[in-house]
Design goal:
Bound molecules: cytidine-5'-triphosphate
Helix content: 25-40%
Number of helices: 14
Low-confidence stretches: none
Largest sheet: 8 strands, mixed
Shape: elongated
CATH superfamily of the largest domain: CoaB-like
Number of domains: 2
Distance between the termini: 44 Å
Length: 412
């Protein structure tokens, strides 16, 4: 959810000061909070405090000419992922319900296409007034969410419902609404409801605190698969090796270092996955002995003993569920198809992505790949494509394989 833009409208209520706490929590969580203060709100709270907390400009009036954008109500509406009004007074609810646009905030509300959330705060009689309740109903019928005010002693010394909900409750409602919207976006996609587990990158096998045994894997192909899986609607867990790639948005990342770390991550997460993809380049061996202190040089040569690491893919193949689809990779420098097919069968994979390190456009470092997709029955040669496109092809192939497995199971 980081990098999401929240547009916060603050209206004229004694509770306006509580907006500082909302802005502070959201900013700390990584959201970009654009703030519009109505004129009445600016009588209760200073825009300088809000600008300092949000690290952004605060907008008070449509035409004050201090902002670089010529039409701020359109610009702010356009970039908002969620619009929140807290506190929302009776006036802004009435204006929103009736489409009145006579200041920056109300114009902006009319221009917003994002989801809306309001946390009302006002005198109990104003809140209970049939007009306010009708406005709230209208807005709810248009998809607005509301965080109800609390009951208690109000600023006007009356007791009743009208006090702004706690800032933590409002922040929780904001995050819940954003999450709901994210879910909606992925609902009708080919992999919605599927769980994908993918490993990516090299392993590092330590010799001592400064040296390790590793390989040239960049992690790009595995990360591209994770990104494509998310874009296709899946819940994605990415076991990421020691690489400095950014985590694709919406993907859960679990870092590993050695093959044995990776094995633990895969064993824990594979049972709940529909698709498991081992794109990591795993070291087959590790040092028999690892030293706590930096090794000092001695003599003209040194000899180390390496011991076998577990074959993670093979282990996953042994415990694979009937409806689970397992995909391995094979990186070869000779006899590609023969070696790769052998690997696929011995490790009980449903799909294997084979590439030749020596082919131009394929391999570890670049953004493209040229591969052969193998199933126990088929061989499909794919031309040069981006690693993300290939990720999509792999995932859609796995989906077809899973469909085949489940329809086969229902026939017998
Ligand atoms: N793999 C694994 N655990 C290992 C070695 C490999 O899970 N200890 C997985 C890789 O992630 C890949 C597949 O097995 O999906 C094939 O890896 P590769 O390195 O091409 O082949 P190996 O099985 O290690 O065989 P060799 O090194 O002899 O070519």
């Amino acid at each position: 959810m980081e990098n999401k833009h929240i547009l916060l409208g603050i209206t004229g209520s004694i509770a306006a000061y509580k907006a500082c706490s909302i802005v502070s929590t959201l900013t700390k969580k990584g959201y970009a909070v654009d703030i519009i203060l109505t004129r009445h709100a600016s009588a209760f709270i200073g825009s300088l405090s809000l600008a300092a907390i949000s690290h952004r400009d605060v907008f008070v009036d449509e035409f004050d000419g201090t902002h670089e954008s010529l039409i701020p109500h359109i610009e702010l509406a356009r970039r908002a992922d969620l619009c929140v009004i807290a506190p929302a007074d009776a006036n802004i609810l009435a204006k929103a319900a009736h489409g009145i646009a006579d200041d920056l905030l109300s114009s902006c509300l009319l221009a917003c296409t994002c989801p809306m959330l309001a946390a009302p705060a006002m005198n109990v009689h104003m809140f209970e007034n049939a007009a306010t309740q009708a406005n709230i109903s209208t807005l709810k019928s248009r998809g607005w969410s509301f965080v109800d005010p609390e009951s208690g002693m109000l600023a006007c010394a009356e007791v009743g419902k009208g006090r702004l909900a706690d800032p933590e409750v409002i922040v929780a409602a904001i995050e819940a609404r954003l999450e709901e919207e994210e879910k909606k976006k992925t609902q009708d996609l080919p992999l919605s409801g599927k769980r994908v587990l993918v490993s990516a990158g090299p392993t590092q096998e330590a010799l001592d605190p400064v040296r390790f045994l590793s390989n040239h894997s960049s992690g790009k192909q595995g990360f591209a698969i994770a990104k494509a899986a998310r874009a296709l609607g899946a819940d994605v867990t990415l076991a990421a090796g020691p690489v400095s790639l950014e985590t694709p948005e919406g993907v859960e990342r679990i870092n590993y270092v050695s093959a044995r770390d990776l094995e633990a991550v895969m064993k824990e997460n594979a049972p709940k996955a529909d698709f498991v993809i081992m794109a990591a380049a795993v070291a087959d061996y590790r040092f028999a002995e690892q030293f706590d202190q930096k090794m000092k040089k001695s003599g003209d040569s040194m000899t180390f003993t390496l011991v076998r690491n577990p074959d993670i893919l093979e282990g996953l193949g042994k415990v694979k569920r009937d409806d689970q689809v397992l995909c391995g990779f094979a990186m070869e420098t000779e006899n590609l198809e023969q070696n790769a097919r052998k690997k696929m069968l011995s490790k009980n994979c449903d799909l294997l992505v084979a590439n030749n390190l020596r082919t131009e456009g394929a391999g570890f470092q670049g953004d493209t790949n040229i591969v052969t997709l193998m199933t126990p029955e088929t061989n499909t040669h794919l031309g040069l494509q981006s690693k993300e496109e290939l990720g999509k092809t792999i995932l859609l192939t796995m989906l077809e394989i899973q469909k085949g497995k489940t329809s086969h199971a229902s026939v017998h």
